[in-house]
Every structure is written in C-alpha cells, then in structure tokens.
Amino acid sequence: MNLPDFRIEKVDVDDPRAVALRAVLDADLDERYRDADAEDSPEVAAKRAEALAVHAEQVVATLLAIDTADTPLGHVILRRLGDEWELKRLVVVAAGRRRGIGTALTAEVVDLARRGGARRVILQSGRMQPESLRVYAAAGFTPIPVYEPYLETMPRSLCFEYVF
C-alpha cells in the first residue's frame, strides 16, 4: 500500500498559501465559466461575487494539502452557512492532481463536520467542474436543489449533500 506523499494541515483562513490557492481557483473558474457569465449585468455579477465570498467569521476550518517539500497542493474550507455546514473552495493545483488530494480534503471536511455535530454537509458546484463532481460522487454526496445564496445568481448550479 502506498502512503500519501502529502499531509493535511489546518491553517488560518488568511494564511497566504490558502489565499494564493483560492486565487488559483478563482482564475480557473473564471476561465471555465467565462462564456456562461458573459451576459450578466454588473448587479448580478456583484451578487454572485458576494455569494462566493469567503467570510472569515463563517469559517470552521481551512485545510491545505502540503507535499513533502512543503508545497501547498490543495485547499478546502468548511464553513457554517446559517444552520448548515458547507464544503467550499476545494481546489487541487495541477501538480497535485490524480494523487488523492481532493478525496482526502473532502473526507477531512466531512469528518470535521460530523465531529462538530452536523447532520449533513452541503456544497455548490457546476457542470464545468467534472473533476470535482467525480470526487463528490465518489465521496457519497448526492444531488439536492440549489440553495441560497446561490439560487438567485447561479440557478443552474449543481448542489449536493452528504447526510450523516
């Protein structure tokens, strides 16, 4: 059995490595969804940005996957969204893909939420993120209707839950 060549580390939400990985995710999502978002008004774009924003006071945990050379390869946040627990901002950089990092980060978020008393973990994604959708399905997430704050500005989102 091969042991993972990375570790998962809990960091502050404003850790520079976490911020940098979220910027990588933002650039990737901007590229993937550019055509879909092109017709949006500035008002809709601003509301979408707010829906996607990371609010430090909601963050339960920020996790990084870090390789043996201390290079950050992946990132995810577990946040409280009202009464819900939400997996947010999962990203694995190109050098970390196909190494089980997305799976490990997802499993750690689910475990943290379970230990925190959650009844389920929810998440929002989209059709232009097939790699993420495969990770979520393999982890046991099942489809649910689009929920707020995404319903108004991203009604074609794909949303999922993991029920305990």
Mean of pLDDT: 94
How many extended strands? 7
Write down the Rg.
15 Å
H/E element order: EHHEEEHEHEE
Strand order of the largest sheet: 1-2-3-4-5-7-6
Main sheet record: 7 strands, mixed
Assigned CATH architecture: 3-Layer(aba) Sandwich
**In percent terms, what proportion of residues is strand?**
25-35%
Keywords: Acyltransferase, Transferase
Domain N-acetyltransferase: 19-159
Protein name: N-acetyltransferase
GO molecular function: acyltransferase activity, transferring groups other than amino-acyl groups
Describe this structure as you would to a colleague.
There is one protein chain. The protein is built from four helices and seven strands. It has 164 residues and is α+β, with helices and mostly antiparallel strands. The protein has one domain (6-163): Aminopeptidase, CATH 3.40.630.30. Strand 2 (59-67) and strand 3 form a beta hairpin. The longest helix has 22 residues, at 16-37. It starts with 5 loop residues before the first strand and ends with a strand.
